[in-house]
Amino acid sequence: MIKVCVLYPNAEGVTFDYPYYLDKHMALVRLRLGASLIADSVEKGLGGGAPQSAAPFVTICSLYFETLESFKQAMGAHGAELNADVPHFTNATPLTQISEVLVERPAR
Q1: In a domain, 107, yes or no
Q2: pTM, whole model, 2 decimals?
Q3: The pLDDT value given to residue 13
Q4: CA distances for 33 relative to 5, 39, 71, 104, angstroms
Q5: Is 108 among the domain residues?
Q6: Which of 3, 46, 59, 93 has the lowest tally of Cβ within 10 angstroms?
Q7: Beta carbons of 31 and 106 less than 8 angstroms apart
Q8: Whole-angstrom Cα distance, residue 25 to residue 85?
Q9: The total number of structural domains that make up the chain
Q10: Which domain holds residue 66?
């Protein structure tokens, strides 16, 4: 399984419109990526590792795909449209990491 993390760095002056992101952007992501998208999650940063420190990322989105090829195919077809929507919800420049999931299991 492939996990694609889109990380929105936190910095002074960064804005993030969660209602737009959750209701419109993520709906567009699900629509465009279709059946190739197995699952997704969205996290809102609350804090960093040190007490009272700011979260390094305002938001992290994780997208799961069966294979790297299915991700590449879906993003090749729709990546430009999805990236063009970013200025509608944030002024942050997102970072992306593509990973192979080696272990996924519940804590209990």
Answers
A1: no
A2: 0.92
A3: 97
A4: 15, 11, 8, 22
A5: no
A6: 46
A7: no
A8: 7
A9: 1
A10: 2-100
Residue type, 59: T
Query: Residues 96, 45, 36, 102: is their CA dihedral positive or negative?
Result: positive
Residue 75: DSSP 8-state: H
In a structure prediction context, what are the per-residue pLDDT tens digits for the chain, which is 108 residues long? 999 999 999 999 999 999 999 999 999 999 999 999 999 999 999 999 999 999 999 999 999 999 999 999 999 999 999 999 999 999 999 999 999 999 988 888
How many CB atoms sit inside 10 A of residue 8's CB? 22
pLDDT at 7: 98
- Residue 102 token pair: 């080696």
Tell whether the torsion through CA atoms of 85, 56, 72 and 74 is positive or negative: negative
Pair type for strands 37-44 and 95-100: unpaired
| Beta-sheet strands, E only, within 10-94 | 37-44, 57-65
Residue 66 main-chain phi, psi, to 5 deg:
-65, -45
